[in-house]
Give the backbone structure.
Amino acid sequence: MPLKVRYKQTYDKLEVVICDDGSTDGSPRILERYRSRDRRINVVYQANGGQSLALNAAFRNSNGNIICLLDADDIFMPNKVEHVVHSFSTAPHSGLAVNAMLIVDAAREPLEKFPFFINFLQVGRALLCA
């Protein structure tokens, strides 16, 4: 399980909760190394139970008011968390935010951008953040 934490987030008041869902590789050792370097990282270990149980365990162990999900095959842009926090501060009654997605190749070169998201447009109770 490669760790996809972006330490260069422009918003630094964050907590990173990682749920190791029964890894059988060297992930626990890697996670502990990252956790020892940054007190914002909280690692939850559990027997393999699948994505839903892992998400629930991470939610139970989080302290923030805004939660951004990051799957193992995803990467946050450096300003992603800042954009989400700003969006909720400008539209506090929104219940969720949806971000534009950028499809990249193995070298992280853009392949395609989904154009149907509009920057900071409030639609009902959802925020669309680019």
Summary: The longest helix spans residues 27-37. The first strand starts at residue 16 and ends at 21. The CA atoms of residues 3 and 30 lie 8 Å apart.
